[in-house]
């Protein structure tokens, strides 16, 4: 985990230096992390819009992550496409196949959570506005450093520089109220009613066997939810088009197209876009044929899906390589290859500073010595531990800040309040329309809190409970045993309610809240450094001794580094103080029933159980 550092977290003077280009037409603002940030004229045209300015009311220190496994991707993609071809009632509600609108995926999703870190860390009141400026600046610094050392070799021109900077600036413009909480918890639950009638019908042909004892459709739901983890990037792309159209910004169409590709880079690698393949007759033929065979063969569904998936991956890689030049540019803002990007550089440093935590990770060192080889950004072998510290510090932030037990309690309450207010305020009605979506921001809570309408009474009461610190009560938690991680399925309130013994208080699902917290190093149970490429030592500060990149296997650098890369923590909350004892007992019974032992570290304190 990130080691504590007593030094001032302000960056060194070198980081405040402007890139080596003409600043006469630029304006500058002073950022409390990076110092002076110089804004070029085109960037200012985007900044000075109401759509971008609304980011000032978006809390930054609210994050969520979903571990994505290859098999999840396989089923999310294949089942979604097959179900849309066979059962047009769901996915083909979105008629524009050139870009699968994020609503296409939202319509068939169940649940997730995110929220309000500043309620526990009062200093974490910085916004996505500051973060976006920081990513803009670091993206510009990164591309200028590459241009300085390898500009002629890589063919980096002014178009590339401007595109990368705009992508850094606008990468988060699509966030809704409370950032990830809105897209990963609120929206799926709002649309969960759609699931009951249609999801089951659509998924019936695709209920392949996976986790023993688990509902057969649960694996598919988990996979598709991982698509929603990138919904704000999809909306960012839509809002960029909207901003250009509404404000008549004079910018090349090719640049806007590239900007959107750079923003979607990480989600594209996680689950690539499929629009191009609908127009390939062979691809459509194999999907339809595979669907027919899967219906007939039943148990052979795994084989059919695997064939489809690997054909798709092979075809996609060929098209990707032929369609994209300068692929190293896609590693700068949203790196889908290994997760090392300037977005993480900024929020890790900024959030650590705002929360009063130490951060010993030095991203300037990585930016100064990174080089491009084989169209990929590579790092010195001696920086292996520095990169590991990046991922470890991020995991530390998730554990101690973003998923703090009190933070999650507040988030669950905010989601409950939004859900209760949605039918009256129609909060979710604007998610398909960028011209309405940008108007949503965190002030929705103040609207609910101050409105006199009787229809908002339940939501208003929840907001007042938050203000008065009368939160859902944390009962206990346990870490899922390492050997159970692979086949773990999320614990639900129903699981806990069904685990209570006869007698005593009768628990209902609505009395219980469960938070399934996954913390990893960005690649699930895999080591993210396995996806990084390294080079040998620098000579004379500029050139590398060898022009061959290489991976570094586990155990070659240090035996003190972890060999497990993911934690799964299950937390249970009681929505009513008088039910803490009953919920805690049911939670213990669930652990005994599931694992044969109580996996929690200690019993729920008796003092907490007696709280009224």
Q: Your description of this structure?
A:
- It holds the Pfam family HD_assoc_2.
- It is a single chain.
- With 612 residues, the protein is mainly alpha-helical.
- The protein folds into two domains: 24-66 and 107-199 and 230-271 and 303-471, Hypothetical protein af1432, CATH 1.10.3210; 475-539 and 565-611, 2-Layer Sandwich (Alpha-Beta Plaits), CATH 3.30.70.
- It is 48% helix and 8% strand.
- Strands 3-4-7 form a three-stranded mixed beta sheet. Strands 5-10-6 form a three-stranded antiparallel beta sheet, sandwiched between helices.
- A hairpin with a 2-residue loop joins strand 3 (371-373) and strand 4.
Q: Can you lay out the helices and strands and say which pair or pack?
A:
Blueprint: E1 27-31, E2 35-39, H1 41-47, H2 50-53, H3 70-86, H4 102-106, H5 128-154, H6 158-170, H7 180-190, H8 192-203, H9 218-228, H10 231-247, H11 253-263, H12 265-270, H13 275-278, H14 281-297, H15 301-323, H16 342-354, H17 363-369, E3 371-373, E4 376-380, H18 384-402, H19 405-425, H20 434-437, H21 444-450, H22 457-467, E5 473-479, H23 493-497, E6 512-520, E7 534-535, E8 538-539, E9 543-544, E10 566-574, H24 580-595, H25 606-609
Parallel strand pairs: 4-7
Antiparallel strand pairs: 1-2, 3-4, 5-10, 6-10, 8-9
Helix pairs in contact: 1-6, 3-9, 3-15, 5-6, 5-16, 6-11, 7-19, 10-11, 14-15, 16-18, 19-22, 21-22
């Amino acid at each position: 985990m990130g080691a504590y550092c007593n030094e001032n977290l302000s960056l060194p003077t070198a980081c405040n230096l402007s890139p080596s280009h003409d600043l006469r037409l630029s304006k500058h603002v002073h950022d409390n992390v990076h110092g002076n940030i110089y804004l070029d004229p085109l960037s200012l045209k985007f900044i000075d819009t109401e759509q971008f300015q609304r980011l000032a009311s978006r809390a930054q220190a609210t994050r969520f992550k979903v571990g994505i496994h290859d098999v999840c991707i396989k089923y999310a993609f294949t089942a979604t496409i097959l179900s849309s071809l066979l059962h047009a009632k769901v996915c083909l509600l979105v008629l524009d196949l050139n870009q699968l609108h994020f609503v296409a995926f939202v319509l068939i999703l169940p649940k997730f959570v995110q929220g309000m870190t500043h309620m526990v860390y009062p200093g974490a009141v910085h916004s996505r506005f500051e973060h976006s400026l920081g990513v803009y600046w670091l993206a510009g610094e990164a591309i200028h450093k590459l241009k300085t050392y390898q500009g002629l070799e890589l063919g980096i021109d002014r178009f590339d520089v401007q595109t990368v900077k705009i992508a850094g600036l606008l990468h988060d413009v699509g966030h809704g109220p409370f950032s990830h909480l809105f897209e990963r918890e609120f929206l799926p639950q709002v649309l969960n009613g759609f699931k009951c009638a249609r999801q089951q019908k659509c998924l019936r042909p695709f209920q392949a066997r996976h986790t023993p004892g688990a509902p057969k459709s649960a694996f598919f739901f988990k996979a598709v939810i991982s698509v929603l983890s990138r919904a704000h990037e999809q909306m960012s792309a839509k809002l960029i088009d909207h901003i250009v159209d509404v404000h008549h910004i004079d910018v090349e169409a090719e640049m806007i197209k590239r900007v959107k590709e750079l923003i979607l880079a990480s989600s594209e690698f996680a689950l690539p876009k499929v629009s191009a393949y609908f127009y390939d007759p062979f691809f459509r033929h194999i999907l339809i044929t595979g669907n027919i065979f899967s219906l007939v063969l039943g148990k052979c569904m795994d084989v059919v899906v695997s064939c489809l998936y690997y054909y798709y991956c092979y075809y996609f890689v060929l098209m990707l390589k032929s369609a994209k030049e300068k692929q190293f540019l896609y590693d700068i803002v949203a790196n889908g290859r290994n997760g090392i990007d300037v977005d993480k550089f900024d929020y890790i440093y900024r959030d650590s500073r705002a929360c009063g935590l130490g951060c010993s990770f030095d991203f300037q060192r990585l930016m100064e010595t990174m080089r491009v080889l084989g169209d990929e950004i590579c790092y010195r072998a001696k920086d292996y531990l520095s990169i590991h510290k990046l991922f470890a510090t991020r995991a530390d932030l998730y554990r101690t800040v973003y998923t703090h037990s009190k933070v999650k309690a507040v988030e669950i309450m905010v989601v409950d309040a939004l859900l209760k207010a949605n039918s009256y305020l129609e909060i979710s009605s604007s998610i398909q329309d960028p011209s309405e979506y940008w108007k949503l921001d965190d002030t929705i809570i103040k609207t609910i809190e101050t409105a006199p309408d009787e229809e908002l009474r339940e939501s208003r009461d929840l907001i007042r409970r938050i203000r008065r610190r009368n939160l859902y009560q944390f009962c206990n938690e346990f870490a899922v045993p390492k050997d159970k991680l692979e086949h773990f399925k999320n614990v639900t309130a129903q699981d806990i309610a069904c685990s209570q013994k006869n007698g005593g208080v009768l628990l209902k699902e609505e009395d219980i809240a469960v938070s399934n917290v996954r913390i990893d190093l960005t690649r699930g149970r895999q080591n993210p450094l396995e996806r990084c490429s390294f080079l040998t030592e620098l000579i004379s500060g500029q050139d590398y001794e060898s022009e061959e990149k290489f991976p570094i296997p586990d155990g070659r650098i240090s035996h003190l580094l972890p060999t497990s890369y993911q934690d799964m923590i299950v937390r249970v909350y009681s929505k009513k103080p008088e039910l803490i004892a009953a919920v805690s007992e049911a939670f213990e019974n669930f652990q005994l029933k599931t694992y044969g032992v109580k996996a929690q570290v200690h019993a729920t304190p008796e003092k907490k159980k007696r709280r009224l």
